[in-house]
Amino acid sequence: MSVETTDLLDVDDLTAAELETVLDRAAAIKAGEDDTDLSRRTLAMVFEKPSTRTRTSFETAMTRLGGHAIFLGPDDIHLGRGEPVKDTARALAGYADAIMARLFDHADAAELAAYADVPVVNGLTDDAHPCQTLADLLTIREAFGGFDDVTVAWIGDGNNVAQSFVLGAALADLECTVTTPPSYGVDAGVMDRAAELGTAPTVVDDPETAVADADVVYTDVWVSMGEEDVREEKLSAFEGYQVNADLLAGHDAKVMHCLPAHRGEEITDDVIESDRELIWQQAENRLHAQAGLLVELLD
Ligand code: CP
Ligand code: NVA
């Protein structure tokens, strides 16, 4: 089967079968078994926030597939100085075959998709990071051979990366446990969407309980892009949620992190540098997962 959705604003724009199709296509591309050609195709990449992985992996994916990607940072286009999203959408769609956008407001990504008549892919908003989830699921599938009997403990902030992961886990039928400080949990609407897909995550009160049965412990920064003004407040709220050697002692769980990592805050250096980490495989898989997505959307 092929993917019918035209946009990926969050991972549940895909059905469970479509998610599997994208992951299979990603795996085939990674293995050198799929030589789909996207020559003469252009991806416009709109960034309101910084990026190391998303920008580089999308751009590299388009190059390897024979196409081209254009980086449009906040100082490069008029979006950064007040041109409406809906105007940007229609203009870019007149040139590019697809648009990838990293924006603050998720509603802006939805508006971009509504006005662009080419596929729009969310490269992270304050609420969602579906491309990260595709890479995460590819990594877990590679590490464990599938999703059956795998439990992932999410420890930390319940915002964009966590929210898409919870939805992806529900679609993939992957067991997921979530622990966040009070007031930083996964949005209730996202929990409802996960439940409708089949498997809402189990919410537990503390990291120790979350880690108890975990095969993978996954965390993200405590201070997300754009939250610098509430840094002190968040550091104090997240005390006790650090993924460190003490928390993991006696467990053989692997560790995932979407990156960038803030060593000494949500995770310690020794954990990142230990043989528990799946982090660099996860980062590399952004490239393959997005290549799989691009060919499904554009081929
Ligand atoms: N994980 C992730 O999206 O990384 P970047 O912010 O570097 O793109
Ligand atoms: N939650 C983080 C994810 C970075 C990839 C942020 O939004 O900054």
Automatic annotation (TrEMBL):
Residues noted as binding L-ornithine in the record, renumbered to the chain: 160, 220, 224-225
Compartments where located: Cytoplasm
UniProt enzyme class: transferase
Record flagged with keyword Cytoplasm: yes
Keyword Transferase (UniProt): yes
Domain spans labelled Aspartate/ornithine carbamoyltransferase carbamoyl-P binding: 7-142
Keyword entries, A-Z: Cytoplasm, Transferase
Entry GO terms, CC: cytoplasm
Any single GO BP term: L-arginine biosynthetic process via ornithine
PANTHER family: ORNITHINE CARBAMOYLTRANSFERASE, MITOCHONDRIAL, ORNITHINE TRANSCARBAMYLASE, MITOCHONDRIAL
Family to which the UniProt record says this protein belongs: Belongs to the aspartate/ornithine carbamoyltransferase superfamily. OTCase family.
Protein name (Swiss-Prot/TrEMBL): Ornithine carbamoyltransferase
Natural source organism: Haloplanus rallus
